[in-house]
């Protein structure tokens, strides 16, 4: 189970993992910290009277994805970015396993005041008949926005293009509004 110890608990929010039993009940194992929010270069800290920490950092909504183009294991997660908006960043496991170590993209994937992103795969079929070679798998990015106005916050869906960056060999992503 991947989860966060939020800033209200630890100041510098952490993404953690803990093994569950087959019945999905927590084991006696201690959670393992994968990374802290302050390790991501795009995250901005803040002061709050709710904690004794000078600076706090948000971690929220971890979502795991195995990239089709590169077989990388990535994690989408949310925090406040340097633009003071809620953002979705990408962490990458350099080992390809949940244990990491984890690195962070320098810029968030999404920086327009939305968060708690998830991905779904849908299939686009060019005809109503049997599957053909032209059928395509499409990734859909789902998140909530705007974060600053939670009473008017709604789910937002984007088409997500995943491809391999020819410069560094890593998976790269671009999102598009559905028209």
Number of strands: 11
Order of H and E elements = EHEEEEEEEEEE
Structural class, judged by helices and strands? mainly beta
Quickly give the CATH architecture. 5 Propeller
Shape: globular
Low-pLDDT parts are none
Overall pLDDT:
88
CATH topology: Tachylectin-2, Chain A
Helix run count = 1
**Count of folded domains:** 1
Q: Give Rg in angstroms.
A: 18 Å
Give the CATH level 1 class. Mainly Beta
- Beginning-to-end CA distance, first to last residue: 36 Å
CATH superfamily assignment? Glycosyl hydrolase domain, family 43
Structural write-up:
The chain has one helix at 7-10; strands spanning 2-5, 14-17, 32-36, 60-66, 73-80, 86-93, 102-104, 115-124, 136-145, 154-164, 171-177. It has 179 residues and is mainly β. It has one domain (2-177): Glycosyl hydrolase domain, family 43 (Tachylectin-2, Chain A, 5 Propeller), CATH 2.115.10.20. A four-stranded antiparallel sheet has the order 4-5-6-7, with no helix packed on it. Strands 8-9-10-11 form a four-stranded antiparallel sheet, with no helix packed on it. Strands 1-2-3 form a three-stranded antiparallel sheet. Strand 5 and strand 6 (86-93) form a beta hairpin. It is globular, with a radius of gyration of 18 Å.
């Amino acid at each position: 189970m991947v989860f966060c110890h939020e800033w209200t608990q630890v100041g510098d929010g952490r993404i953690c993992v803990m093994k569950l039993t087959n019945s999905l009940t927590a084991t006696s194992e201690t959670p393992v910290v994968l990374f802290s929010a302050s390790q991501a270069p795009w995250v901005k800290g803040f002061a709050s009277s709710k904690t004794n920490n000078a600076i706090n950092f948000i971690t929220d909504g971890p979502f795991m994805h195995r990239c089709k183009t590169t077989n990388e294991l990535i994690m989408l997660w949310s925090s406040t970015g340097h633009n003071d908006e809620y953002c979705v960043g990408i962490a990458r496991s350099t080992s390809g396993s949940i244990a990491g170590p984890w690195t962070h993209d320098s810029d968030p994937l999404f920086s327009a005041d939305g968060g708690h992103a998830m991905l779904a795969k849908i299939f686009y079929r060019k005809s109503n008949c049997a599957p053909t070679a032209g059928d395509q798998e499409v990734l859909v990015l789902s998140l909530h926005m705007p974060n600053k106005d939670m009473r008017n916050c709604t789910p937002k869906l984007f088409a997500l293009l995943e491809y391999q960056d020819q410069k560094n060999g890593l998976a790269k992503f671009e999102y598009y509004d559905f028209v």
